[in-house]
Design a protein that fits this description.
Length: 314
C-alpha cells in the first residue's frame, strides 16, 4: 500500500503535476529575462498562476478526432506515452529512503523504457492520418534513435565504472574523483538527453515553421496536454538519472538529501532554459551528422577510456 501512496502522491503523479507547473513558470520567466521581456505577469502574484490557467484552458477545449484517423490508436497513444515515462520516476531515489522501486537493474530498466518511446511518438503521427503528422513521426523516430545510442553508451560507462546497475549503489559509490573521470560521459549524456526529448536547439520534430507542428499537429485539448506532459516528464526523469549517475544524487553537506537532489536538478534546468533562449534550431541533416559522426564515436571512445581507467587505476 505504501508503494501505491508513493506512486499517487510523492514522488508520483500529483508531485509531478506540481513540479511541472513550477518548471513551466520558471522557464517562461527565465526565457523572458534572457530576451529582455516581462514574461507571465497578470495571472496571480508575479504571474505565478499563468501556467495553471493555461492547463485549465487546454482541459476545456473540445476533443476532436478527424474522420480519417485511427480512432483507437489516436485516443490511446497519449496515455501509453504518459504511462511509459511516469514509470521512469518509480526507479529514481530522491533520497536514501525515498523511492518507489529499487532493483539490481534500475539503470537498465530506465534505458529500456526510454528506448520504447520512439515507436509511441511515431504511432501518434501515423494514427493521425495526416501527412504533416506522419512526417513529424518519422522525424521524431530518426532523432530519438540517433540520440539514444550515445545516451546508452554514456550511461553504460557509468555502470562499468561502478560495477553496478542499481541507482542507490551508484549514488553511494560516487565521489568527486568519479565525477572527474565521468565528466566526458556527463556532457555526452546531457547533450543526448536534449536530443532525445526534443529540446532546443534539437526541437526538430515539432518545428512549426517546417512541418506545422510535427506529430502533434492533429492533437488538441486534453490529448495534446498529455503528450506534451509526457515529453516534459521524460526530460525530468533523464535529468534525475543524470544527477544519480554523475552528480552524486542526493549527496551533499548540511541540507537534507532531497534538497540537494532538487538543487542539482534546478541547475540542469537552468542550463536547458539558457540554451533554449540563446541557440537557433538546427536542421535534421545537421543533427543526424552530429549524432552519428561526432556524438556516437565520442561516446564509444569515452566507454573505452572508462574501461581502461577501471582496469589499470581502480
Amino acid at each position: 500500500m505504501e508503494a501505491w501512496l508513493k506512486a499517487l502522491f510523492f514522488p508520483g503523479f500529483l508531485f509531478l503535476l506540481v513540479v511541472f507547473l513550477m518548471i513551466f513558470y520558471f522557464e517562461r520567466k527565465i526565457l523572458a529575462d534572457v530576451h529582455l521581456r516581462t514574461g507571465p505577469y497578470y495571472v496571480g502574484k508575479w504571474g505565478i498562476l499563468q501556467t495553471t490557467a493555461d492547463v485549465f484552458k487546454l482541459l476545456q477545449k473540445e476533443f476532436i478526432i478527424q474522420r480519417r484517423a485511427n480512432k483507437l490508436l489516436f485516443s490511446l497513444i497519449p496515455f501509453v506515452a504518459f504511462l511509459l515515462v511516469v514509470a521512469l520516476i518509480a526507479f529514481i531515489p530522491f533520497s536514501e529512503n525515498l523511492w518507489v522501486v529499487s532493483t539490481s537493474f534500475d539503470l537498465l530498466i530506465i534505458l529500456a523504457l526510454v528506448t520504447g518511446m520512439p515507436p509511441v511518438f511515431f504511432y501518434a503521427g501515423w494514427a493521425s492520418k495526416s501527412k504533416y503528422s506522419f512526417i513529424g513521426g518519422l522525424r521524431v523516430v530518426n532523432q530519438m534513435i540517433s540520440g539514444e545510442i550515445p545516451l546508452w553508451l554514456s550511461a553504460l560507462s557509468v555502470a562499468v565504472f561502478f560495477g553496478t546497475l542499481n541507482n542507490l549503489e551508484i549514488v553511494k559509490e560516487s565521489s568527486f574523483l568519479s565525477f572527474l573521470v565521468l565528466l566526458p560521459a556527463f556532457l555526452i549524456f546531457i547533450t543526448s538527453t536534449l536530443i532525445v526529448t526534443d529540446r532546443p536547439p534539437f526541437d526538430i520534430p515539432e518545428a512549426e515553421q517546417e512541418v506545422v507542428y510535427g506529430f502533434l499537429t492533429e492533437f488538441g485539448g486534453f490529448n495534446y496536454a498529455i503528450l506534451v506532459l509526457s515529453k516534459l516528464v521524460e526530460l525530468f526523469a533523464l535529468y534525475c538519472v543524470a544527477v544519480i549517475l554523475f552528480l552524486g544524487g542526493f549527496k551533499g553537506p548540511v541540507l537534507p538529501g532531497i534538497v540537494w537532489f532538487f538543487i542539482k536538478i534546478a541547475f540542469l534546468y537552468l542550463f536547458t532554459f539558457v540554451v533554449r533562449a540563446s541557440t537557433p534550431r538546427i536542421r535534421m541533416d545537421q543533427l543526424l551528422r552530429f549524432c552519428w559522426k561526432v556524438l556516437t564515436p565520442l561516446a564509444l571512445l569515452n566507454l573505452a577510456f572508462v574501461i581502461l581507467i577501471k582496469m589499470f587505476l581502480f
